[in-house]
User: Which sequence fits this backbone?
């Protein structure tokens, strides 16, 4: 089984890339979904986060109040690093378990869909990494249209993400998505064929 790490900035076209890979038979592990799972009520991860940041980050139903937690870590780099260290440990453990299970079930291609692929260290669990990049203006337009937000908010979202130069430096391959959805799908298929992912 090949483990492919997929990343890309918001609005670059990662969702289309994923849809194409699924159509080629890939199993996808969405790390945003895994993150919500490990930080749900009653998990070891939640217990450790509460231990570090206090009961005031819990809602009445026992779930973490993400806004309250965000306020605590947003302006404090040390606290953000602590939160990241806790959550990434549990996320990686869950992703590795899913990789093991998929391999045992005889899957051929497993995609780790991780916005923080390199920051989390999950790239070390992948055989190959692929980044989807796109012109900044195009990404802004896509984010505003997709999320119904204004330009200022879209700019802020992009500012908090990994730099494109870093993606070029760290990724095994980069696909530039400045054309149509069909052109991106074609590029993904060509990548998969070139890398022998369609066995």
Assistant:
């Amino acid at each position: 089984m090949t483990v492919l790490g997929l990343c890309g900035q918001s609005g670059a076209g990662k969702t289309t890339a994923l849809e194409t890979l699924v159509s080629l038979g890939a199993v996808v592990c969405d790390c945003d979904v895994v993150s919500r799972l490990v930080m749900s009520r009653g998990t070891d991860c939640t217990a450790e986060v509460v231990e570090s940041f206090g009961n005031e980050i819990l809602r009445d139903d026992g779930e973490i109040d993400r806004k309250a937690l965000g306020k605590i870590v947003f302006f404090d780099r040390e606290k953000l690093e602590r939160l990241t260290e806790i959550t990434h440990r549990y996320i990686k453990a869950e992703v590795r378990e899913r990789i093991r299970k998929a391999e045992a079930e005889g899957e051929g291609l497993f995609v780790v869909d991780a916005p923080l692929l390199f920051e989390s260290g999950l790239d070390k669990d992948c055989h190959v990494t692929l980044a989807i990049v796109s012109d900044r203006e195009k990404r802004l337009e896509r984010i505003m249209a997709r999320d119904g937000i204004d330009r200022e908010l879209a700019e802020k979202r992009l500012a908090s993400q990994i730099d494109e130069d870093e993606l070029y430096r760290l990724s095994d391959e980069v696909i530039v998505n400045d054309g149509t959805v069909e052109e991106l799908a074609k590029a993904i298929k060509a990548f998969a064929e070139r890398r022998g992912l369609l066995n």
In short: Residues 1-26+108-199 form a domain with the Rossmann fold fold (CATH 3.40.50.300). The chain has a mean pLDDT of 94. The first strand starts at residue 2 and ends at 8.
